[in-house]
Amino acid sequence: MNVDQKLDALYEQLKSAQARFSGYPCNTHFDYSKLYRFLNFVVNNVGDPFGSTNYQVNTHEIEREALSFFIELLHGKPENIRGYISNGGTEGNLFGLNLGFERFPEGIIYFSARSHYSIKKIVNLIRAPYREIPVMPNGEIDYELLCVQLKKNNDKPAIINLNIGTTMAGAIDKQTTILEALRSSGIKNYYLHGDAALSGMVLPFINTAPIFDFRSEIDSLSISGHKFIGSPLPCGIALARAEHIIGSEPNIAYVRIIDSTISGSRNGITPLMMWYAIQTIGRQGFLENAKQCLENTEYAVKYFNQQYSIPAWKNEHSITVVFPRPNENMVQKWQLATHEDIAHIVIMPQADKSFLRSVIDDVAKNGY
Ligand SMILES: *Cc1c(COP(=O)(O)O)cnc(C)c1O
């Protein structure tokens, strides 16, 4: 095969794989073709988008505009929240948990056993002492066991990773219950990081959803950009209260030159993509996508239950359908994510009812 043939083959391979893409939470409905011409530049967003730099081939201004949309969506005050467009949810988790550990170097990081695997990687990377807390059957952290651990270690600050939608089942760790546990343990110094990789772009559009954003006591948040929003390049939104980033008053943060980012050279195209998604989809479009996905999630659970008596279930406010793990053939074919004896489908905007029926029909008839 020559180069062109190889590229054609790769193109067909990706096209076919994406058509059967159902277990991973990536919105594949996007059209960034208007941005292709920007690939002709050495765009590099090195440094903090709120700082200044002499590397001028950047999209910092567009990045700040995109960030201000997310800050507003998450009810933050623009002058109090800082952050950047990261390489993905993992980097946002590293950014947030590292800020917490810098704030409280003598602290312990707490997270549930259903946390994304990035959390364990991060605590090892930053060499933080940690406690992994078991979960309840729906995937929420076991608050009583958390409380036991907090009480045992109440001489040390607590840095807590809250799952705002676990990867496998979309379970949400309740901040109010965790705050009660902190209070009853007597711990006064704590830092709360929210891992909202997927649900961070769904929950803001549900009136009845628990409050996880900057109206609450959350100190930092991580959201993936290539999941619910959709992007061909992985990216994320990393946000934290400004006081943690520079360790001083927010108004001073605004004028100081700071570099809070994890990477050096940074993607300048993904902030542009996030900005473009905001301009073209907008708050209303995200809201409609969230509503449609939630409705289709209910539909898929019912279809599993009623059509096939398969005990599929979902957590409240979640777009993840959990069901008994089918055979490897089905797992491969539909690219289902699995954990022990369960599998899931994440209902993204491209997964309409007829697509869902074809996946469920196949899994039910050929999967067990
Ligand atoms: C996907 C996911 C992550 C990691 O995000 P990436 O963008 O893949 O780095 C972290 N936490 C949760 C809950 C996730 O679902």
Short summary of the structure?
The chain is an alpha/beta fold and 368 residues long. 41% of the residues lie in helices and 14% in strands. The protein has 13 helices and 10 strands.
Structure, described:
The chain is α/β, with parallel strands linked by helices. About 40% of the residues lie in helices and about 15% in strands. The protein has 13 helices and ten strands. Strands 1-7-6-5-4-2-3 form a seven-stranded mixed β-sheet, with helices on both faces. Helix 6 links the parallel strand 4 and strand 5. It is globular and about 55 Å long. Bound molecules: pyridoxal-5'-phosphate. Pyridoxal-5'-phosphate binds next to helix 3.
Order of helices and strands: HHEHEHEHEHEEHEHHHHEHEEH
Name the bound molecules: pyridoxal-5'-phosphate
Largest sheet: 7 strands, mixed
Helix content: 40-55%
Provide mean pLDDT, rounded. 94
Number of strand segments: 10
Beta-strand residue fraction:
5-15%
User: What gyration radius follows from the Cα positions, in whole Å?
Assistant: 21 Å
Number of helices: 13
The order of strands across the largest sheet is: 1-7-6-5-4-2-3
> What distance lies between the first and last C-alpha atoms, to the nearest angstrom?
40 Å
Give the low-confidence spans. 247-257
Return the structural class. Answer: alpha/beta
Question: What form results from the Cα inertia axes?
Answer: globular
